[in-house]
Amino acid sequence: MQHELSPDLEIELTKRIGALAAAFPYAQISGETIKVYARMLADIPLEVLDAVASQAMAECEFFPTIARVREMAMNLASPTGQHVSGFEAWEQVIRQIRSVGSYGRPGFIDPLITRAVECLGWPELCQSDNQVADRSHFVRIYEQLVERERAEARLLPESRELRASVLHLAEQKKIAGGKG
Predict the structure, then answer these.
(1) Domain residues of the chain, as ranges?
(2) Residue ranges of the chain whose pLDDT lies below 50
(3) Is the model's pTM score more than 0.90?
């Protein structure tokens, strides 16, 4: 279900997309294209879109696709764009193992590091004799969690709504199927 844009928001988005198009004089951008861009970028805050447009003008050789603009916005303004690499995350785990040990409670700023550690078990990581395998498993889990979060962040609001309703229906069927 596509949400209607308010006239004021559509004007503001059109101005920004028009300015972006002006930076790429050889691109042939139609009014219909600008409308599609406005609709597909409406969930991005205007100040973020301003920064993304400036960055796109500075680094893109060609007029950026909607997907590229959304990716740039996510990397700029979303916590999902701020995750460290899997190996840097593992480095944080090793520091916590050394400082708090298996009886302590590790503290990570990134909740995905915490989640990956929970998947493997903190005491098990601390007491393991095979750090090479532990690192490999941790990095794989952490990177999957990051990718899942990024995929969720890339969803358009209406896609996120549809997904939530599908998950809700599946949960209702599961609950109904469990009774009886």
Answers:
(1) 7-77, 78-180
(2) 1, 180
(3) no
